[in-house]
Amino acid sequence: MNYYSLNKKAPNTTFKDAVIKGLAPDKGLYFPETITPLPQSFFDNIDDLTYPEIAFEAIKQFVSPEIPEAILKTIVEETLSFDFPVVKLNDNISTLELFHGPTMAFKDVGARFMARCLGYFNKDNTNEVTVLVATSGDTGGAVANGFLGVKGVNVVILYPSGKVSDIQEMQLTTLGQNIKALEVDGVFDDCQDMVKRAFLDEELTSKIQLTSANSINVARWLPQLFYFMFAYKQLHKTHKEIVFSVPSGNFGNVCAGMMAQQLGLPIKHFIASNNENNVVTNYLQTEEYNPKPSVQTISNAMDVGNPSNFIRIREIYKNDFNALKNNLSSFSFSDAETKVALKEIYDKYNYVADPHGAVGYLGSKAYLENNPKAHCVFLETAHPTKFLDVVEAVIKEKQPLPEQIQSVMGKTKEATKISSYDGLKSFLLK
Ligand SMILES: *Cc1c(COP(=O)(O)O)cnc(C)c1O
């Protein structure tokens, strides 16, 4: 598959090149030249397919021929070595648990898939690649875990000091080897801006091959479309109007869901559930897109003031505002509302959600007010114990810690503090 830049000022390129570059030379995000819907028989027979088989069929067109089919099969099998269960709360609301991977957030799938693609592309050359990634919480850990020990790949993670949870910080600062963490005196947008600036810095990019493992990278972004198919497989017999409520930050996950829909998956509607970082909620109301500085919330992985993937969503709908609005609703919720929702989910359904999932639950409820026949699936994007302080304070019960969380606790943090772009640059050049 070839990819074009959404800035339209760079040549089209292969999947391999798009993965290695991350961003196009004109700084645009890459987008596939074509999207060919899967045959109806794929959806008719989905019950007979395993998750890796579904994933293989769904992603094949986007990665071939640069990744041969036999290799791709191995990559999806290794990537998807855990479960993606749907848990039903009531007749109208389910949750899709995306936190059963090694770092207990949905970003594990994209990170593991991308790491394996880069590992394959690097298999017989000695050109080192540096993966530069900004994290608002979960990307860092998932990327650190997914890329640990991958030959020829150095990983540098920027995270906002004091604005990620303790467990998230442990997950990204304690692995060592080819993984380095930079603790930035600032907010997530500062981290993201520094990463963008590094890509623009010709002095730097002439010396080292930089790529991104944020969802701007097609190999991180596209595998997320699997989730929507896995949920469909579990629900399609009992529910006809499936709506996904996606707790959104950079809008990579919801945009991947829209790609699944473009492939023919019968999804009725999407809900982008936001915390108080509500650029898109406002856009759908006013048709004015006004990025603004992010504000800190208890659903910190969604504290994004200028969502990088929104431009891909506009591309899917060919910049037709009404077409987008017909397919996407968006709601924004405060921390206070999120805490009430956490408590409600626990009291009513005996289910422990995390703050991001709780925002998704609230989005589902808001949508159902006017669409009572829908079945809303909110994505549980992280395990509740990643946000232990908030969750335990609200539901007033101690939570048992899963093995993946226990294994990072008490490890020694190693991070280099930086406060400006120059700090990042000199770190990369040394
Ligand atoms: C990254 C993340 C999100 C936001 O996903 P986007 O693809 O950036 O919209 C939501 N919840 C959790 C737990 C995350 O880690």
Question: What does this 3D model show about the protein?
Answer:
This protein has 20 helices and 14 strands. The protein is α/β, with parallel strands linked by helices and 430 residues long. It folds into two domains: 2-29 and 57-73 and 107-217 and 411-429, Rossmann fold; 83-105 and 221-401, 3-Layer(aba) Sandwich (Rossmann fold), CATH 3.40.50.1100. A six-stranded mixed sheet has the order 4-5-13-10-11-12, with helices on both faces. Helix 11 packs across helix 12. It is globular, with a radius of gyration of 20 Å. The protein starts with a strand and ends with a helix. Pyridoxal-5'-phosphate binds next to helix 12. The site of pyridoxal-5'-phosphate has 17 residues, from helix 12.
Question: What descriptive keywords fit this protein?
Answer:
single chain; 430 residues; alpha/beta; Rossmann fold; six-stranded mixed sheet; 43% helix; binds pyridoxal-5'-phosphate
Largest sheet: 6 strands, mixed
The CATH topology of the largest domain comes to Rossmann fold
CATH architecture of the largest domain: 3-Layer(aba) Sandwich
Strand order of the largest sheet: 4-5-13-10-11-12
Low-confidence stretches: none
Strand content: 15-25%
Distance between the termini: 36 Å
Structurally, the number of domains stands at: 2
Helix content: 40-55%
Q: How many strand units?
A: 14
Ions, cofactors and other ligands present here are: pyridoxal-5'-phosphate
Envelope shape: globular
Given helix and strand content, the structural type is: alpha/beta
